[in-house]
Amino acid sequence: MPNSETHFGAPRSRVDGRLKVTGAAKYAGEFTAPDLAHGYVVSSAIAKGRITAIDTAAAEAAPGVLRVFTHENRPTTAWLNSSYRDEVAPPGKPFRPLYDAEVVYSGQPVALVVAESFEAARDAAALVRVTYEHAPHETNLRNVLAEAYVPPKERPGIDPPPNPRGDAAAAYAAAPIKVENGYHVAPEHHNPMEPHATTVVWEAGGKLTIHDKIQGAQNTQSYVTSVFSLPKKDVRVIAPFVGGAFGSGLRPQYQLFLAVMASLELKRSVRVVLTRDQMFTFGYRPDTIQTLALGADREGRLQAVMHEAIAGTSPFEDFQEVVVNWSGLAYHCDNVDLKYKLAKIDTYTPLDMRAPGAPLGMFALESGMDELAHALKIDPLELRLRNYAEMDQNTGRQFSSKELRAAYRLGAERFGWARRSHEPRSMREGRELIGWGMATGVWEAGMQQASARATLTAGGKLEVAIATADIGTGTYTILTQIAADALGLRMEDVTARIGDSALPTSPIEGGSWTAASAGSAVQAACYAVRETLLNYARRMENSPLANAGLDHVVFTAGHIALRSDPSRSVSFADAMRAGGVDRIEQEETTAPDKGNMAKFSPYTHAAVFAEVRVDEELGAVRVTRVVDAIAAGRIINPKTARSQIIGGVVFGIGMALTEESMLDHRLGRFMNHNIAEYHLPVNADIREIDVLFVDEEESKANPIGVKGLGEIGIVGTAAAIANAVFHATGKRIRELPITLDKLLD
Amino acid sequence: MPVDPAATGAAAASPAGRAPAMQHRITLTINGTRRQMEVAPWTTLLDLLREEMELTGTKKGCDHGQCGACTVLLNGQRINSCLALAVTKDGAEVLTVEGLAAADGTLHPMQAAFVEHDAFQCGYCTPGQICSAVGLLKEGHARSAEEIRELMSGNLCRCGAYPNIVAAIEQAMQQAGVAAR
User: What is the CATH number of the domain that holds B117?
Assistant: First the structure.
C-alpha cells in the first residue's frame, strides 16, 4: 500500500537544476585526466568505394601529434560482426570503424588523429591525404522503391504490421467517400546541442573509465567489452549528464570506438569530440515514403484503411520502426491493410529519433482524416469521435486505459475549437490567413524490466541507484520524488544516482519507458527497505508497532507511526539500532505484468490543436498557438512533464515547418550539415504552447500507473499544423516541411 | 584551474605541442580573477576556457557561431566565445556561467529563475542561454515577451524549453526593475 504521497504529482523543480544553471553539470566531453590526449576524426569525402591510399606522413610530422589511426594500422578488435551489436541494434552487420578500406557512406570516419591538444589534432587532421576509388552510389530512395522488401528479420521490440483484417481493397472500392494520397516527411537529424563525445580515462593496468554520450551506460559498457575483448570489471561507464540525445545516444557511436581504441593503444587517456558537421555522419530519421487510402461511408465511418510505407535503410543494417501500425489502432475500422518495407540507400543506418516512426505514420493518417473531414464537410474533431477506437484492433486487446475522449473535449475547450469556421480560407486578419487544425497522437506506454537499489542510513538519508540516464527528461527528479514518498522523506534527504554502468541493471533510456521502468524499480526497492525497517521496529522490546503490518503504519519524518495513532511511533534510527544495522540496503527488480500484457494494450494519447498564421503574399507560416491535451496516466511531476510535452511540440513544429536533412544525391551526402542550414526551431518560432494532462486511471501498464511523456508531444503535432495550414490557405501540403515555396506554388 | 604564472613564475598554461614562438601573452580577468597566460594565436576564447581553464560550463555546440551555447559576457556584452580568438581579447573581462552566482553560492536571479521555470531540460544550452539573458537585460532593448523571443533567438535549445526560457527572463526582468510592456 502506498505511503501518503507528498511529492508524486507535485510540480517540483529539477533536483539537478542547480548543477545545470551553474555550469557544474559535467557532460561526456568535459571530463578530463592529467595525460589527456585529443582525437580528431577525418571523414570520408565519398559515399561509396574504397580507399586506395591514405597518406598520414604530414599529419604524423605535425607538432604535438601522437598517432594517426587508419584502417591500415588499426589495432586488432573483434572480428565477428555480432561482437559489434549493441542493445538496440537492428538486424544486420553493425558498422565497424576503420575496419578496412571500404567506404560505405559519405562522412564515414577514415582516420583518427590523436595529438597533445585539440588544436594540434584538428590541424593535423587537415593534413591527412586520402585517395579513393569511387564506386557508383545511390542515396535517392525514390530510385530504389522497386527494390523495396519486407525485412526478413524483425528488429526486436518493433512490431511488424499486423496481419490484414477484413478485406480492405474491396471495402475501399465500395466506399462512397475515398481519399488516397502520398505523404512524405523529410529525413531529419537529431542535433542534440551537445555533440557526441567520449572521454576515456586510462589507468595503469588498463582499467578504463569511459564518459560517453549515451542513453544507457550499460549499453556502452557491453559494446566496449565485446568489441575490445575486455573484462567487464575493467570498463566502467559514467555518464551523469547527457546534453540532449532524442535517440541519437541510444547506440554507441563511432567516436566511442575510436576513443577507446586510441586509449588502449596509446595507454593514456583520450577524448574524441565530434564536430557539428560530423553529427550528420551517423543515424537520422529515415527517409520514408508513404501512401494512405481511407474509405468511409457518408457519415464518415471508416470502411477501409490501407497504409504503406517504404523507408530507406543502410546497406549494412535493416533499421525498422513502427510507421503504419498506428493506422490500425488509432480508429475503429474492420478492413485494414498495412505494409512496411525497406529499401537500401548508401547512407549510414537510420536511428530512432523522438517517437521513431509515429510522427511519420500519424502525419499521413491525420492528414488523411482531415482530408476526409473536408470531403464530408464535417468537423475534423467530430470525425475522430465517430471513429473512436474502443479497443486495439491490431491485437484484439482492450486498452489498459484511454481517456482520449476527455483529451479531445478539454483540448478543444481550451483552444476554442467550437468557434472554428470550417471552410478553408475563412479566417484572416490583415494579410494573414488564419488556420486551425487538429490531430490525434498515440504512442506506446512501455515498461521494461529494470533493477534498482535503495539504501537508507540511520541518519535518515536515502540513496536510490539504477543505471538509467537523464537526457533532460527529469529522471533524477522523478526518481527522487518516488523514493521520498516511499519512505516519507523530504526530497533533500534523497539522492538519485544514475548514469553509471556499475549500478543495478537498467534498459537504455528510450521509448518513453524510463519513468515506468526505473520508477517502478526504485519504488519496489524503497518498499523493500520499508519492510525491513518495519520488521526491525516490530521486534523492538515493547514496540508500539509490535502487531502492525505495512497497512497499519505510515512512514513520515524519519519515523514509522501507527496510522490509527500517529503518536505511537518508532524512529528509523531506533529501528535500525534494534536490528543491529546502521544502513538498510535492498535491490529489487520489476518487470511488466505478463497477465496484464496478454490482455491489455498500453498506449498514451494526445489531442493536438494548432493555430497558424500564413502570410498570404510571402507564404511564411507561424505557429501562433498549440494546445496539446495528453492522456498519460498519473503525472509524477507536472512541471517537468509539461516541459517534456512542450519539447515534443517544438520538435513537431520543426518537423512541420523547417527541419530537413537535404541529400545531394550526386555526392551522396547530407549537404546542410550544420545548424545554420539545418533549421531547428529558434525561440522566435515558438509562441504559446498550452499543455493539459487529463485525468486517467492507469493500473495495468506498470505498478506506478504512469505512461512516458518523452515522445507523445511530437506525435500528431506536425499533422495538426499541416491541417491548420490547409484550413488557412486551402492548400494541402503532403510533403514536410511546409516551406514557403510549397505554399507559393 | 591553471596556475597564474604571474603569481608563481611557473610555465604558462599553453596547449602542449606548440612551438613557444607561437605563444602570445595576454591578460584576462575571468570571473573576477585577473590572469596572465600564454595562448596560441589560433586558440578561441571558448577552447581556452574549456580546455585550458577547465571552465567547462561554457559549452561548445557548433564551434561556428550558429547555436549560442558558448555565449559568455565579454566586458558585459554577450558574445559567441567560439568566434573570438583569445589573443584579440587581451585586457578584457570575461564572465562565464561559473561566475554568476554569489560567493556564498546564492544563485544569480537569472539562474534562480531558470530553475524555477524549468527553463531547460538537458542543460547543455543553459549556460549560454543564461549568459545571453543576462546580457540581454543589460542591453535594455527587450521589453516584451515578443522582443525577448526575438533577441534570444541566437541561443538554440533542442529540448524546446523556449516558452519557459521566456518566462524565466520575464521574471528576472521584473526583479531587475525593468518594466515589461
Answer: 1.10.150.120
Cβ neighbors of A396 (< 8 A, separation 6 or more) are none
pLDDT band at B178 (very low <50, low <70, confident <90, very high): low
* DSSP characters over B99-144: GSS-TTSPPPHHHHHHHHTT--SS-SSHHHHHHHHHHHHHHT---S
Residue A226 φ/ψ, nearest 5 degrees: -75, -45
Question: H/E element holding A368?
Answer: helix A358-376
Query: Residue A464 belongs to what domain range?
Result: 17-22+447-591
Task: Inform me whether the pLDDT recorded for B1 exceeds 50.
Answer: no
Per-residue pLDDT, B21: 46
Domain count, chain B: 2
- Residue B159: inside a domain, yes or no? yes
Q: What sign does the CA torsion over A64, A69, A70, A73 have?
A: positive
Whether residues A112 and A260 share a domain: the answer is: yes
Domain shared by A437 and A457, yes or no: no
Interatomic CA distance for residues A110 and A123, integer angstroms: 16
Summarised one tens digit per residue, pLDDT across range A209-259 is 999 999 999 999 999 999 999 999 999 999 999 999 999 999 999 999 999
Residues A539 and A470 in one domain: yes
The reported pTM is 0.96
For an interface test with B, give the residue of A22, A241, A491, A622 to mutate (most B CBs within 10 A).
A22
- Is residue A11 in some structural domain? no
pLDDT at position A80, please? 87
CB–CB contact B17 A116 (8 Å): yes
CB A349 within 8 Å of CB A319 = yes
∠ CA B175-B177-B180 to the nearest 5 degrees?
95
A669 and A620: one domain?
A: yes
Residues 6 or more apart whose Cβ sits within 8 Å of residue A718: A185, A359, A363, A652, A653, A655, A656, A736
Query: Which residues of chain A are within 8 Å of residue B67 when distances are taken between CB atoms?
Result: 193, 276, 675
pLDDT at A3: 60
Are the beta carbons of B123 and A648 separated by less than 8 Å? Answer: no
Q: Are residues B115 and B88 in the same domain?
A: no
Q: Which of residues 95-154 of B touch A (CB under 8 A)?
A: 96-98, 100-101, 107, 111-112, 114-116, 118, 120-127, 130, 148-150, 152-154
Query: Cβ contact (<8 Å) for B66 and A243?
Result: no
CATH number at residue A201: 3.90.1170.50
ipTM value greater than 0.85: yes
- If DSSP codes are grouped into helix, strand and coil, which group holds residue B58? coil
The verdict on A33 touching B (C-beta cutoff 8 Å) is no
3-state secondary structure of B8: helix
Three-class SS state of A259: helix
Do B163 and B119 share a structural domain?
A: yes
Are residue A300 and residue A355 in the same domain, yes or no?
yes
Q: Is residue A109 part of a domain?
A: yes
Q: How far is A627 from chain B (nearest CA, A)?
A: 13
Identify all chain A residues contacting B15, using CB atoms and an 8 Å cutoff. 64, 116-120
Q: How far is CA A413 from CA A87, A311, A607, A686, A721, in A?
A: 44, 38, 12, 22, 18
A378 and A417 within one domain: yes
pLDDT tens, residue by residue, A393-443: 999 999 999 999 999 999 999 999 999 999 999 999 999 999 999 999 999
Same domain, A183 and A200: no
Interface residue of B118, B132, B144, B150 to substitute, partner A, most A CBs within 10 Å: B118
A224 shares a domain with A103: yes
> In the annotation, is A711 catalytic?
yes
Q: For residue B115, what are the domain limits?
A: 109-175
